[in-house]
Design goal:
The chain is mostly helical. It contains nine helices and no strands. The protein has helices at 2-20, 23-30, 34-40, 44-68, 76-88, 91-103, 107-132, 139-163, 166-193. The longest helix is centred in the last third of the chain and has 28 residues, at 166-193.
Length: 194
């Protein structure tokens, strides 16, 4: 029942936003009574703090599934860009975005999201090194590239809310697919020349 409530909370946040996510709507979508919700989450605040943890776990699972489907070989980087973008346009990303905005003025929510973000970043960092460590001569460069991609896609996905332009995003993704391999090769040549 707890899982149903958390899934319903994320659905409501995605569909109606944080401000529109009432407990009445959440219990309705979860198919449980208000009393059952209060048994698991005595307050709306506790429900949303748990939802923040839950959405982080969902995002991490989606990320792991994404990486598991990456091909090996030459098309690996292009596939990673496409799959990562798909991750940034998922309902869980937009639910997390709403919770992140709400956390600006909610210290308890902010603390939970910060903890979850640290865990997510650690997994992302280790996996990126494992999959793409061979593309740059130094681990710092791989991680800098990962952060660049992550923040760029986060901004693109946020901008997509008001621009509704998938075409613009695709143009950027196509440029990234060309840029990163060239940058990695250039970096390797610089390293070899030193």
């Amino acid at each position: 029942m707890r899982e149903r409530l958390l899934d319903a909370t994320l659905d409501v946040i995605y569909d109606l936003g944080y401000a529109g996510a009432t407990t009445i709507e959440i219990v309705s979508r979860a198919g449980v009574s208000r009393g059952a919700m209060l048994h698991h989450f005595p307050s709306r605040a506790e429900l949303f703090v748990a939802a923040a943890e839950h959405v982080a776990a969902v995002r991490l699972a989606e990320f792991r599934d994404t990486l598991a489907s990456l091909p090996s070989g030459a098309g690996r980087f292009d596939a990673a860009i496409d799959l990562l973008w798909k991750n940034f346009t998922s309902p869980s990303f937009y639910a997390m975005l709403d919770l992140t905005a709400a956390a600006r003025t909610d210290q308890e929510l902010r603390d939970k999201l910060a903890d979850a973000a640290d865990r997510f970043d650690g997994t992302l960092s280790a996996t990126t090194e494992e999959l793409f460590g061979d593309m740059a001569p130094a681990a710092e460069m791989v991680q800098a590239g990962r952060r660049f991609l992550y923040f760029l896609m986060q901004g693109m996905a946020t901008n997509r809310i008001v621009s509704h332009s998938d075409r613009e995003a695709q143009q950027v993704l196509d440029i990234l697919k060309q840029f990163f391999p060239v940058a990695a090769e250039f970096s390797a040549r610089l390293q070899a020349a030193e």
